[in-house]
Amino acid sequence: MNWMMRARERWQPGAPRTCFGLDTLFSTTNMANDGAAQAQQANYMAQVARNNQTIAERNAALALQQGETQAMQRQQKTAQMIGSQRAALASQGADINSGSPLDVQTDTARAGAYDVANDRYNASLNAYKFHLDAANQEAAANDYASQAAYARARTSARINQTLLGGSSNQAGQSAMLMFPPT
User: For residues 95 and 140, is the Cβ–Cβ distance under 8 A?
Assistant: First the structure.
């Protein structure tokens, strides 16, 4: 019995034998699809985080702007209050530039300045929270981008490993057919 006949006996129709080309093609296609899906999901999450970062930065700027607007309104209100005090004291015939009337105006101005500073401080705290959120979102976006790059690299390595493993299996099968053990 020659080696061709022994090879045919070993590989009878219906025996489980896969073709290197199709088996490897399906395997690598599935790996590529899985890797691409993982990379796309990570890229999507990175973009969501970047969008959240942009929103947080805009909110920080808006918080500062609102705080400054509130401080300006407080200054105007304090100035109006001092003007009302001066008018009331002057209508009573008091000297508004000395003594107790001046002390009342000074206290009102000091309280108004404190309120203005407090408004600006609170706005700064609020903006700081948004800046922290923006920094966290940026870090998350970078993390997701790294995950996407890793998914692509891992997929490429797995495909190469499969191709190399599949070709060595095919070479072994071909060698068995060409040079069967005696």
Answer: no
Torsion region of 7: left, alpha or beta (phi above 0 gives left; psi -120 to 50 gives alpha): alpha
Please list the pLDDT of the chain residue by residue as tens digits (182 residues).
Answer: 454 445 445 544 444 445 556 677 777 888 888 888 899 999 999 999 999 999 999 999 999 999 999 999 999 999 999 999 999 999 998 898 899 999 999 999 999 999 999 999 999 999 999 999 999 999 999 999 999 999 988 888 888 887 777 555 555 555 555 555 65
- Cite the DSSP H helix spans in the chain: 3-10, 20-91, 99-178
The Cα 179–Cα 171 span in angstroms is: 12
* Tokens coding 85: 């005090």
CA distance 133 to 37: 28
Report the C-alpha gap between 98 and 39 in whole angstroms.
75
Distance of alpha carbon 132 from the chain centroid = 13
Distance CA 44, CA 23 (A): 32
Residues 6+ apart with CB under 8 A from 158: 31, 35
